[in-house]
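Slide 14.
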Amino acid sequence: MSEAQSVHLSFEDGARAVELARDSVEAFVKNGQREHPGSMRDSFYHRTGAFVRLESTRGMGRLRGCAGAQETASELGSGNQQLGHAIVEAAIKAASDASCGSEVEPAELSNLRVSVCTVSNLLLTDDPVDDLELGTHGIAIDGRGKHGWMYPTIPVEQNWSVFEYLDRTCRKADLPNGAWEDDDVMVTLFEGQVFAETEPEGDVEELN
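Slide 15: predicted structure.
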């Protein structure tokens, strides 16, 4: 597998990545349009993958959308898209009805917390229990025509063990617990920086 270009974003780059994701969500939801990255920061020209999560702050809160510009591990490693455009594509997918079953509505925008994870340093592993470092690695699981992924920050936030992290990523891919051990399921670890709004439309923080 070819690897995504290794890119480390400055805090300013990360804040702009989140701003671009929010602008892309709003342009899609309000006007059905695709945001253009415009004059991109230098780091946004690197060819690598990106994920976007939209979390609702209403009530108890819930995941409202999540998507990657390149969803499968093989696509993550292909490096066929510049980061700026990957962020736009992931944001639109996250806001669409293809993500969590229903398209984000304009009235929801002010209650959405936006985060972005950039992808680097892919590792296709035969021993994820030994290779996986909680808080450092995200997981992409592919097999049986299905795929799923999770941010590297999630298991730390949820206090999951390595085994629970792997099982929950399998379930997100609509695969059974323990499928990550099967020969027909591919587990890829990726390092990534995660930047998120502290509150909807608020300041941005780096989470890892």
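Speaker note: The helical segments are 11-31, 73-76, 83-95, 97-100, 128-131, 154-158, 162-172.
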